[in-house]
Amino acid sequence: MAHLRDSATSVAALAAALACTPALAQTAPDPVAQTVPDAPEAQDDAGEIIVTGTRILSSGFTAPTPTTIIGEEEIARNAQPNIFNAVIQLPSLQGSTGASTGTFSTSSGTQGLSSFSLRGLGTIRTLTLLDGQRVVGANVTGVPDISMFPQLLVKRVDVVTGGASASYGSDAVGGVVNFITDTRFTGFKANVQGGITTYGDDAQALVQAAVGKALFDDRLHLIASAEYDHEDGVGPGDFGTDLAGKRDWYRATTLFNTGQTNNGLPQFVVGDYAQPYQYARYGLINNGPLQGIAFDVNGTPYNFNYGSGGVPQGNGRVSNCYPGNSFCVGGDLSGAPGSGASLKSALERINGFGRIGYDFADDNEVYFTANIAQVKTSNQPSPGYNRPNLTVQCANPFLPQLVRDRCASAGITSFNFGSSNGNFPDPKVSTDRRQYRFVGGVKGKFGVGGSDWRYDAYYAHGTTIADIDVDTIVLQNRYVAATNAITLNGAIVCADAAARAAGCQPINIFGGMAPSAAALAYVTPENGPFQHTKLTQDVASLNFSGEPLNLWAGPLSVAFGGEYRKEYYRVTGDPYGAGVTSVSPNSAAYPADPLLNAPLGSNWAAGNYKNGTGKYDVYEGFLELNLPLFNSDAIGRANLNGAGRVTHYSTSGTVWAWKVGGTWDTPVDGIRLRAVTSRDVRAPNLSELFAAPTVTTLPSFNDPFNNVAVQAFQNTVGNPNLKPEIARNTELGIVYSKPSWLPGLSLSFDYYSIKLDGVISTLSADQIVRFCYEGNQAFCGGFVLNSPVQGGNYINVQPFNLASWKTSGFDIEASYRWQRPLGLPGSFTLRALGTHVREFIVDAGIAGVDKVDQAGANSGNTPSWKWLAVQSYSNDSFSFNVQERWFSDGVFGNQYVVCTSACPVSTGNHPTIDRNRMKGAFYVDIGGSVNFTNEISSFFKVDNLFDHDPEAMPQTNTGLDVNPALYDTLGRTYRVGVRARF
């Protein structure tokens, strides 16, 4: 990854780097695209020196915060349809979200949302900026969508791997990612590329163009860009283990729960081909004397083939299987829905950007920008409709006579039934995010007392409109009514008279016969779950930077300023999901129905969006100083950098952030030392403060009290009493760059430690129930698991400022640039970046809940080691590069106790398991380009050259058993394209 690992040297060093950079037709000669060991301050159009890790603007300043810079050439070389995919390859970025994450989710609203996470701290703790300015969030968590940025105009991306709250405010706990655009671009450039996977899916088409013009003696600058990107996505697969595109790595790997905690054997056993024994694709009787009778596609009953040599016991359990989560091993897997989720959301984005700037005086500009973008995604979270707990009457006229006779012989009138409803249409989740962002500002330079001062003032207004539509999701009470059929006057009808009056149409659930159009319209109406969200952000900012004094070792540099920000959101769900105040929802699209729980909502099987609104205001001011300590040949050059910021939130009061650090260019050839410590903050976002309840369906939740799996709802609600999180961030580093004996060499090592207190977090639904089961009464008032009412089982989850996190590790970087290797024209470059996570300790802050170290847990975001290496050769005619991405082997979770016999008692804090290892991955990418002329070039890229399959991540349910935030789930991908610049 092309990069610059320090935050400053001088403009002269930058110019020197440019002099040795070969120009390629596909990009403008860009100094930051090459490895310059003393990461520079990059000059922008008005002569400012932009250093993302600080507000100080000075040609002699060296900031103490490590910064990686990805230049225009590197962005082009990665040939990604979204610049986001190039940036997340950096090892320090862990847990970012994109089009391949969240695809098996219905209600999250984050499908296809491209957002960064540094240090594994989550996307909400990484501040993403566009030209140093905040961007309106793409959903209620406040994180922006990188897909909406003007990507072809990006000159470079600065990634600050350290706390920056004193400089930029809230959210910069993990660091800052700043996109710097070319505000003085002139000419025309375009990029056209396409791509496809080796499995023939995820076809991609990207078209980008930008134009810039300078008028009136270079005083008026007009810039416009537009882009269109279409990505088909991958998936879905089918029931069982069949993934999309003949991918064969899915094995339904699961943590089988024996249900035993103190018999000397492990509670959890890792295995493949988990077979749910409560349901089958077209129906399975799962309790009572007829347990084990299933139905084929024609509705013909047969004896279900349980794995593990299982035999139904008549009480809902199966011998030789696992009662803790109702699984057998092997057998008939045709009803398992895990492989039916999309592997990547389909995505379509349209982006338009314009900027007009006018130099009303030398080095002074007034400007206006407009960014209008739309991103649409779609995914399938699962196939059919998984329903493991339906009561069926033996008198149901759709039931085969053979089974009705067996009912009579057994003396029963009803039985429990589970089905994946493979005859139902598959659900589809579609999102539509539209962003409108406008910025007006003035920036430049003025003189005071013989010294130059720089200023930057702007006002930004952003609006995001986000809609989520879910198609063919079942209304659960209507489904129950439609499946309870009787014969009346010679016709098969719904048994419930009130349901019949409201339009109920009977459904045959025994076999694969598709329901009638009228029945589907009743159970899965055209107007399905819906959420409409409006977010607005207003920012007014004024900043100054100058050098008021010349001291013994150089100028004293000062930066100060203030900012006002207002965040607002409103979210509205459909009446069937959100609930209404009366039986009539006053909408023809969602007519009143006595079967639906109108006041409370939550009628859908998934996608029960709620209503909510909230806002807050922020006032803040900051001061940053850089004091030169000494500057001589004998002892080198050193500076001390400090900053403070006071912020007042309308919701939580006043909070302080600060930082103190410095650098020392030692007299030893090429060695620089740097250190910084800071107090950083993250204020609770709108979702955490005011979130409408988010309802997530848990189809097979383990009830430890009765040792059975039940369907339950997880209700996640906001907490307006939350306070800001407080972090202490420390970094120590050494840089060895451009030694006289080998000027092309650069090495760096940086240690980091982050302690985050008052973390806004929640326990999982499983933890809440488990801790109550183990005797901690504090957890027992927030759930019900044995309700006889349809949809009555629930677990309430709410965020609190109780947890604390601690993570530490180090970053290593090395690069060497060889000009004219072996006498050949051009240059050869070697680069490697690595991050080691020593610890990532999560303390829930709740009595009875033990700390957990998540470092090395490959089921999460923080593998122990993560590396990126690049070898590239380029000259005026062509370029070729090889890239390796690797992360280390890990575990499912460090909380587990591994044993096969003589096991200790298994607890919620430390469950026992027979195996706890999750392999890492090694990926190889290749790419290259050919310059046809000075203006036109072609390129190619192959990602995951050897088609490396992802490692299984065992689950305790039937979800997709993989971690797409860490592993490549798509396989080998090819891309080709043409670039032009005039």
UniProtKB/TrEMBL annotation:
Residues 63-176 form the TonB-dependent receptor plug domain. A motif (TonB C-terminal box) lies at residues 965-982. Residues 419-945 form the TonB-dependent receptor-like beta-barrel domain. Pfam families: Plug (PF07715), TonB_dep_Rec_b-barrel (PF00593). It is found in: Cell outer membrane. PROSITE patterns: PROKAR_LIPOPROTEIN (PS51257), TONB_DEPENDENT_REC_2 (PS01156), TONB_DEPENDENT_REC_3 (PS52016). Belongs to the TonB-dependent receptor family. It is a multi-pass membrane protein. Its main location: membrane. It comes from the Bacteria. Keywords: Cell outer membrane, Membrane, Receptor, Signal, TonB box, Transmembrane, Transmembrane beta strand, Transport. This is TonB-dependent receptor. Residues 1-25 form the signal peptide. GO terms for cellular component: cell outer membrane. InterPro entries: Beta-barrel_TonB (IPR000531), Beta-barrel_TonB_sf (IPR036942), Plug_dom (IPR012910), Plug_dom_sf (IPR037066), TonB-dep_rcpt-like (IPR039426), TonB_rcpt_CS (IPR010917). SUPFAM superfamilies: Porins.
